[in-house]
Every structure is written in structure tokens, then in C-alpha cells.
Amino acid sequence: MILQAENVIAALKGQNYQRMVDDLQERGYHLIAMCINGMDYGLPQDRRRAWFAAIRDDLWGPCSEAMYRDVIGDLKLEKPLALAKFILPPGHSYICKFMEERKKRGCVRKKPSGAAATPEPQAKRKKWAIDHWRVRTFLGMPPAGAVPPDVAAVAAANSMCDREVDMWRMFQDAPACPDSGSTPSVELKHSASRVVPLRPKSARRRQDGCTTCLLPSSRLLLRPPIVPVARYLSGLEALTLQGIPRSCVLSNTVNSDKDLLSLAGNAFSGGAAAAVFIATLYSLDFSMQTVTFA
User: Fold this and answer.
1) Which of 32, 131, 224, 230 has the fewest CB atoms within 10 Å, counting from its CB?
2) What is the domain range of residue 47?
3) Of 204, 209, 252, nearest in space to 233 by CA
4) In this structure, what CATH number is given to the domain that contains residue 57?
């Protein structure tokens, strides 16, 4: 009777999209597709995704699509919940365990004797240097200088590797948002190409404390005042940012925080999913049908 799906924004166009429309029409369904941001439905995450609702033709009234779009608009909130509501306090047992496990993993690779860190392969380091230079140039930033003391402290607390330290320096040096006078409180830490969202347009969109879009295996650094000391977002917190209750996550058999972070990146926004489902139900026309719910 009802089909609901979510995908990346690219799914809204091209041959695959047209094929999906044609296939659903052949099976007697009408499709509504639109781009929805989870940030508009309560969760503090800037996550724009394609959402699809397919309704069986015999339940499709003459004004159903207009009603659907009206409800989607009416359900939007003025602003999302505060990010701080989803962040665990520094002394929480899960955060202590999370930070300790990160240190044990030894993100900065060291020689068995405890000597200097093992350098990355030359080719890999060269590519990283080129990407780093390209992004700094794109953002109009000066060449990187010596590592500031505050960056070194954050790097030590989070057991950062060299590339993560470079990324954190780039974030610290990024141009400030002209509206708020400062950079956002949280930013994606994954690869050079994904530092580009530090541009003022994206910073304005997140000045209320929203995170950037969660992606599989990506890492986000939380900054003061969201947390007392800058640290990575844990996988447990990332899943709650998708609208999954913390109690459900802790009762799961998945123990690795890295696995939880990957699950969060692949999950959909619970707020957006609920809005689509409510709008779909609201637009159904039962006047000519007798529907039995199992």
C-alpha cells in the first residue's frame, strides 16, 4: 500500500530515477520524491537526502500530492534541538571508555622501542600534501606554519595522526563566518576534500550548533562550548544524532565504537523519516477503500 525510501540527492535525477518511476507506475503506484533536510525536523545534523513516498493508485486522491507537500512544510521546525542535548558529559563512562580505546589503538604509529612515530609512505604523504595545499588555496588561507600549542594539546588528547593534526590546523585557521564571527562548534574530520564545507555559506547554515552530514567512517571534532575540551564525536552520540535512542544502541551487541560510527553514517534521519510517514498517511484517500490493518 505504501512504500517509503531514502537515498542520496543524486537519486532524484538520471536514468535510474526515471526507471524507478516507470517501474512503480507499472505496478500501480504514484511516486512523490523530494529533497528533505533532517535538520528541519528536529535533529541537529545538516543532512540533505532524497526521500520517496509511493502510494497505491487506488488510495491516491486528486489533491494527495498537494496535501503531502503541505504537511511536509507544516511539520518543519524553526530550528533543531540543541546539539548539547545529544552530547555525553566528559565524565560519562562511555566517553571515558571511548577515549581510552582510541589511545590504545595508537593512531600515531610508534616504533616498538617507543622512538619517533613511523612516517607515512612517501607517495601517500605527497598526495596528502597536495590535497592540503589545494584546499588551503581554495579557502584563501595562508600556508601552514608551526603547530600552535592549542592544536598540539587537542592532538595529544585525541591521539591524532599527522594528517588529522594537519586537518585540525586547517580548521583552526579557516576564515570565520561573517555572521557569527567564528567558525562552527563542530566540523567534519575525514579528508581534505571534505574540509571545503568550512566556506562561510555552510558555516552560516550551522551556526546554531548543527553537525555536518554524518558519513560512514567519518570523524567529527566537537569544540568548545559544546564540550569543555575538543574531542571526537563518539559512535554512540552519532547514532543519537540520527534519532536512534541511546538505550537501543547500548542494548545492541555491536561493541566497537568505530562500527557504531559507520552505522550512524549509513542510517537515515529519524526526524525526516517520521515526517515523510506522517505526510504519506495524511494524503491517503480511504473513501473508496476498505483497508484491513494486520
Assistant:
1) 224
2) 2-79+271-283
3) 209
4) 3.40.50.150
Answer yes or no: is 120 within a domain: yes
Evaluate whether residue 171 is within a structural domain: yes
* Bond before 225 cis per omega within 30 degrees: yes
User: Could you tell me if residue 8 is inside a domain?
Assistant: yes
Residue-wise pLDDT tens digits, 80-136: 888 888 999 988 999 998 888 888 776 544 444 455 555 556 666 666 666 667 767
- Say yes or no: 218 and 165 in one domain: yes
What would the pLDDT profile of 192-239 be if each residue is shown by its tens digit?
A: 555 544 444 444 455 556 787 888 867 788 888 888 888 889 999 999
Whether residues 103 and 188 fall in one domain: yes
Do both 20 and 66 map to the same domain?
Answer: yes
What is the b/e burial string over 84-98, where b = at least 16 CB atoms within 10 angstroms of the residue's CB?
A: eebbbeeeeebbeeb
Residue with cell 557504531: 260
Yes or no: say if 189 and 230 are a contact pair by the CB < 8 Å rule. no
Angle at CA 93, nearest 5°, toward 90 and 99?
A: 65
Cα separation, 47 vs 269, in Å, equals 8
- Tell me if the pTM is above 0.85: no
Q: Rounded CA gap, 85 and 79, in Å? A: 14
Query: Comparing C-alpha atoms, which of 170, 153, 154, 269 is closest to residue 211?
Result: 269
